[in-house]
Amino acid sequence: MTERHSERAAAGAAGLEAARREKLRKIIQLGIDPWGGRFDGHEPIGRIRRRESQIRMEHPGDCHVSAPPQEHGPRVRAAGRIMLQRRAGKLIFIDIRDWTGKIQLLVGKGQVGPDNWALAQCFDLGDIIGVDGELKHTRTGELSIFADQLHFLTKSIETPPAKHKGLTDIELRQRMRYLDLIYTDGVLERFLRRTKIIQSIRNTLAAEGYVEVEGPTLHAVAGGAAARPFVTHHNALDIDLYLRIALELHLKRLLVGGMERVYELGRVYRNEGISPRHNPEFTMLEVYQAYGDYLTMMELTEKLVVEAIRATGQDLKLSWGDQQLDFTPPFHRTTYDEAFCQHAGVDPHDTAAVRRVAEEHELPTSGKHPDVVKSEVFEALVEDKLTGPVFVMDYPASICPLTKRKSGRPEVAERFELFVQGMEIANAYTELNDPDLQEELFTRQLEGLPEEESMARMDRDFLRALRHGMPPAGGLGIGIDRLVMLLTGAQTIRDVILFPLLRPEAEAGEC
Known about the structure:
The chain is α+β, with helices and mostly antiparallel strands. It is built from 14 helices and 21 strands. The chain has helices spanning about 5-30, 45-50, 110-120, 170-175, 175-185, 185-205, 250-255, 295-310, 335-345, 350-360, 370-380, 435-445, 460-465, 480-490; strands spanning about 55-60, 70, 75-90, 90-100, 100-110, 130-135, 145-155, 210, 220, 230-235, 240-245, 260-270, 280-290, 315-320, 325, 330-335, 390-395, 405, 410-420, 425-430, 475-480. The strands form five sheets. Strands 8, 12, 13, 16, 17, 18, 19, 20 and 21 form a nine-stranded mixed sheet that branches. Helix 9 (about 335-345) packs across helix 11, helix 10 packs across helix 11 (about 370-380) and helix 12 (about 435-445) runs antiparallel to helix 13. The protein is elongated. The two termini are about 15 Å apart.
């Protein structure tokens, strides 16, 4: 954009704001508060539209039998934001929208009277208004509220995005989510669907006897996952603390304490990169059930996903981009080794062959444990081919330090991950409850590991809790944002997080 063009745009914006402020002054001169107030008795627009069946055709009366019948509908009261205005002489057609839908208002000078008509001359796109009137059809058959009383509720000083261009800049849409919700088709509906998904998860867990808890967000030890934490400092205690990278270790403490079915649905923070599938701040569900195992969690995962789809009113066969996803249970199951052999094209137990495949794909292998190399090959060559939904079971035990080993097969961990379209949606274990083995595995995991890469130090209080006896249990983690992506058709995680992390505006080059 040239400097002269930029100056003209700024001048134009200033002129539009000045015109809106002039209307603001006129509203005040009419004795009306331009910032509104309590507006009782209004119905959601979606409910008003469902009252269309109450409209009746009636004849004017016995003495005018030859006159055509007239529509009479219920009296309604609505509130919403002005999305469109069309003026035709002594009539104004206004579209208003709330979070349940949109409806047209018909404002006639003769029907609303001089005071309301004067107020209507002050309306701008983006203003929030209320209306009383009769629900009927226009001559063209459009369901409308025929206004007889107008109410001003909030003035919009800023000019909304151009009708046809809208908010086309993706970063602006995410930064100015309030405008994205108002003016981008489908965005508000997607986030309302997200709330239904989360509520369904809570309802399903409650029906299964789980209780919801809230663990600490600030941890003295960044445990429960291999991830780089955000570090902060507590001044009074003069200690560093970490924003939690997982919910796991505190929930397991509650298993020790006798809370046999427990879950938390909350924010987790990892100081890592940003991509279409990653945000440093995200929502995680973790669930733990005493006397269960990873197969128990597999059944629960299917139920949670299926009920969430039903809660949004969708069929179990969904479209995601140009792909069709079938969530009809039971989901397909395969083992880690089977998936590896099928998609990486090599026997996962042939260490030399796996290393050759890694090097062919420029994956570093020097100094790495064979199972770590295998895991990186799996991530690079296998995961994207798992269209799913598919449960991948029985992972190499050496990369699963919190997981119980299979009976008679100590090299295999009782773990599954649920993949859909190459994305890991859920991760579950038969939980390790042997305190001595847990300490050994923690020690091995931390050997030679830089502090910023994972846990700052071993969580010895967690080990102490295990020594008091944690019942055998199954545990499950579900990435809520990725699940919402799949169930709402979103192609990037930022489209399902209301306020994703962005660079500060100055750094992003915006004014």
